[in-house]
Amino acid sequence: MALARSATGSGREVRTHVAYKRVTWLKGIGVRQVRLACGLVMFAYIFSHFFNHTLGNISFSAMEWWRLHVHIAWWRIPIINSALYTAATIHFGLGLWALYQRRHFRYTAAEITQLVLGLSIPLWLCAHFGAVRVSGWMYGIAPPLSLQRSRCRRNRLSRAYRHHE
Asked: Which DSSP state fits 8?
């Protein structure tokens, strides 16, 4: 519902109403909405990651193409990557906060399952991250050939950019 400008011509009522709606909208954001938004960011990453695995059933070249040109190209953008890690940290922290605020420890089977999976998945992710990324840094394990190609492409582009400065 839009408010029309008053006959006095000041328009102050409209601006006040819009500012009030913004403040009301911001006050409506709670812990559940933040946790949901963080969960959706992580869901987008996990969907893209598992879709890459699914493409492996079709062909290895399709899987590699998706991983390089879509998955890595999107999720390794610094702002997107930091948004993903921030969302994961906030989501995990809010889950622990919800557990801390609980006044009793009478759980149903569904709540126990959610609790066990919610607390163990970050550990599994750390193990997966360590196996894939950290082992390469620590032990000098070369990344897959396709990653080496993309890094060579990036280095060529950065050298070309520096050349034109």
From this structure: T
